[in-house]
Amino acid sequence: MAVVWSADRDGVHYEVRQAGKTLRLYANGIQHSEFHPGRLLTGSVWDLLWLPALLHEPSQCRRVLVLGLGGGSLIPPLRRLLDPEILMAVELDAPHLEVAREVFAIESFGVDTWLADARLWLQAYDGPPFDLIIEDLFAPSNDQVTRAVAADPEWFACLADNLTPTGTLVMNFGDWQEYRDSPVAADWPLAEHGFASRFRLSCSDCHNAVMAFTREPARSIHLRRRIANTPELNGFLAKRRLDYHIRQLD
After folding, report:
1. Which of 101, 184, 221, 223 is the residue whose CA sits 20 to 30 A from 211?
2. Alpha-carbon distance 73 to 111, whole Å?
3. How many CA atoms lie within 13 A of 40 on its CB side?
């Protein structure tokens, strides 16, 4: 695997490694993003972050916000499968955003990017709400895969306040225990913020627990049916690469 880009910033060593057409972004040896110009699926956690959008009709996702862009692994599938009118992304780590813009060329997919602290950015945001918010906030300096922003009631309320009445919120946790130890594992997020359903997504390639909160009632069978009816996801090779498990919790 060839190293095609590297940098050392603030005690963190970054590398982009290439294998064939696949590009992978690492920070201190931990993989943060994967990108392939002609492939939607990674077979890992990045697929879990956009899959909840298919719990409902893709046409409902007109405004999409990604908090924690990394190298931009989510942007090609979001553009191709949802094709939202507005696609926005915030990233705190300058080298990650540099890779996304200059190495992965994600801005060619029609995404507006900001270099900013996602929590401060959203707290200051005063625009229209979003149909889909994907919150994937992990620090590149971490030696272990753990969240960089606590999933506390204040942050959850900020996320919920910027969703449409029919919106979906996706949050990434390092593992199931990190989610279970957080305040948002209780019942109050649904009761207080108008969510109807809650799901856990996981895959065999990682320990992450990706949580999806939907304001419209949904069932996991809805996701499976839309995958089956989506040509980019139901072919032989796609089926072999799409590794996911979904469990409804409410």
Report:
1. 101
2. 12
3. 23
DSSP codes joined into one string, 107-152: GGGS-EEEES-HHHHHHH--S--EEEEEE--B-TT-SS--BSS---
* 108-153 confidence digits (pLDDT tens): 999 999 999 999 999 999 999 999 999 999 866 555 667 889 999 9
Say if residues 132 and 167 touch (Cβ distance below 8 Å). Answer: yes
Supply 131's token pair.
């149909």
**What's the CA gap between 218 and 49, in Å, rounded?**
17
pTM of the model: 0.95
- CATH architecture of the domain 39-248 equals 3-Layer(aba) Sandwich (3.40)
- HSE-CB of 99 using CA atoms within 13 angstroms: 29
**Domain range list for the chain:** 39-248
